[in-house]
Sequence to fold (357 residues):
Amino acid sequence: MEQEKIKTLLEKFYQGNTTEEEEEQLREYLRDLSLTGSLSPDTDYMSLYRGSIPEPSDDFVARLENITHTEARPPVHGKVLYFAVRIAAAVVIVAGLYFFIDYLRSGGMKDTYSDPGLAMAEVKNILTVVSHNMKAGTAPLGSIKTINIAPEAISPLGKINNTLGKSLQNLRYLDNLTVNEKEIRND
Amino acid sequence: MNKPVLFILLMCLPLSAFSQKSPVDEVFDRYNGKQGFTSVYISSKMFSLLTRIDKEDDEFRNLVTRIKSIRILSIDSATNLTSGINFSNELLPKLKKTGYEELMTVREDNSQVQFMIREVAGRIAELVMITGGYSSSVVSISGDLDLKTIASLSDSMGIDELHGLEKVNK
Fold:
């Protein structure tokens, strides 16, 4: 019977609903040495609460905060830094790809000359060849000047053409006249 | 999709277009290092060194600073006769399809020289000179090219003046 009472009290205790009197009563029950076996763990547990729980000192909270509190950085800075790192990573990747593709575009070709002096001689040589060929191609363009002069030479012919055109337009009046004469004769 | 991955993919899209090889690149890839062919490559890094060497000739230095790279591919005459490779036939149709414009064709005796240019934003980004005939070669000069500058360079090199080139841009 007592065991059932103890179990009820224990259940109430674990739920945190016991009063101080009930807790004291429970301790007294558990002190009884005859109660062993299934309730022994509870006896051990309750033994921890025999003494009064000391109240924390006044500066306890302050000391606890000193240990546990870390200065929280504003979240905005963290986000900006994270974003900047991501952008930097993307830039590095893209730059790497650019140089890789540039290398591929050059067909994996390496500089033929390691000596800048020889490279200079080759550059001058090839540019001379290019210039020479371009000169050969553009030399006939000098004839274009003649074409620019030609229209001025033809301009008197243009004036004659205009005069002829006006004269021919006047002939239309003659056609009208002949039509009018035919109409008069028919009347 | 994860945002950074999407961002990187978007950044790479223009690069993928950039990575497409031009017909000139393909020809260099095909014949570079093969027997019977001679190739020369002068990179932008070397050009940056060249500007430091020739400090006296300002005109040449100005031109060199504008050139990014020069590639030359030539076929040995013996190989040319036996292989039947013709850079003009191989390159020209492809170049015309990929945005290169014909600048001029010079025919002299048995040889034929064709100049092709590639423009980017109104500037000549590449000049390709294809020589056919007995000695076949391809010269590709890339950078920010100015034909007038090349013409003026030939003056300093003792070549006759290229007055006609001034009209090419017009």
About this structure: Residues 160-167 of chain B have pLDDT under 50 and may be disordered. The radius of gyration of chain B is 18 Å. Chain B touches chain A through 59 residues (CB under 8 Å). The first strand of chain B starts at residue 37 and ends at 42.
